[in-house]
UniProtKB/TrEMBL annotation:
One of its GO terms (cellular component) is cytoplasm. The keyword rRNA processing applies. Residues 100-175 form the PRC-barrel domain. InterPro entries: PRC-brl_dom, PRC_barrel-like_sf, RimM, RimM_N, RimM_N_sf, Transl_B-barrel_sf. It comes from Kineobactrum sediminis. Residues 11-90 form the RimM N-terminal domain. An accessory protein needed during the final step in the assembly of 30S ribosomal subunit, possibly for assembly of the head region. Essential for efficient processing of 16S rRNA. May be needed both before and after RbfA during the maturation of 16S rRNA. It has affinity for free ribosomal 30S subunits but not for 70S ribosomes. Belongs to the RimM family. GO terms for molecular function: ribosome binding. Pfam families: PRC (PF05239), RimM (PF01782). This is Ribosome maturation factor RimM.
C-alpha cells in the first residue's frame, strides 16, 4: 500500500481482534459516539515499515463495540495480522466545530491563567484532559513562570470555571482559587 503523507495524525481507535472467518475485525473506537469511527474515509495504520492506508468497506455496531471489514482481507488468518494496530486519520479530516467548542488536542499545551489579587497568575499548561462522566477536567502541569510546582485539576466548565479561551494566544483563563 502507499505511504500517506500526513502532517498531523490522530488515533481514533484500535483493532482488538477478529470477528468471524471472513476478514472482519473488532474495533475499539475512541470517537464519540463510537460509530463516528466508520464515517472517515481515509484511515491509516502503522506497522514496522511505516504508515499505510487502510480501507474499511463495511462496518457496524456489534454489542458494546464495532466490527468492520478491511477491504481486500477476506480470511481470518490475514485479519489476525491487523490485531493490536492503532487506526488513525489526518487531523484535517476532523469536522469543524461550532464557535466555543474545542477538540481536546487544541487545548493541550495552552497556558492557564487565573485572577489573583487583581492580576493574572500563571497556573501552568494543559497537559491532558480527563473525562469524568459529569464533565471534563483539565490536568494542568507547572511550567516555566508558573506560580508554583503544583499539578492542578480544574473542571472544564465554560462560562463558569473557564471564563475565556483564546486559541490564537494559546491561553485559557479560569475562575480558580490558588488554594484549590
Amino acid at each position: 500500500m502507499n505511504e500517506p503523507v500526513v502532517s498531523e495524525r490522530l488515533v481514533i481507535g484500535r483493532i482488538t481482534g477478529c470477528y468471524g472467518i471472513k476478514g472482519w475485525v473488532k474495533i475499539h473506537s475512541y470517537t464519540e459516539p463510537m460509530e463516528n469511527f466508520l464515517d472517515y474515509g481515509e484511515w491509516m495504520i502503522e506497522r514496522r515499515a511505516g504508515l499505510e492506508n487502510i480501507r474499511f468497506d463495511a462496518g457496524r455496531r456489534q454489542g458494546k463495540g464495532l466490527v468492520a471489514h478491511i477491504e481486500g482481507v477476506d480470511d481470518r488468518n490475514l485479519a489476525e495480522t491487523y490485531q493490536g494496530l492503532e487506526v488513525s486519520v489526518a487531523g484535517s479530516a476532523l469536522p469543524a466545530l461550532e464557535e466555543g467548542d474545542y477538540y481536546w488536542r487544541e487545548l493541550q499545551g495552552m497556558q492557564v491563567w487565573c485572577v489573583e489579587n487583581g492580576g493574572y497568575v500563571l497556573l501552568g499548561t494543559v497537559d491532558y484532559l480527563i473525562d469524568t462522566g459529569a464533565n471534563d477536567v483539565l490536568v494542568i502541569k507547572p511550567c516555566e513562570g508558573s506560580v508554583d510546582e503544583r499539578e492542578r485539576l480544574v473542571p472544564w466548565l465554560p462560562g463558569s470555571t473557564v471564563t475565556r479561551v483564546d486559541k490564537d494566544a494559546a491561553r485559557i483563563e479560569v475562575d480558580w482559587c490558588l488554594e484549590d
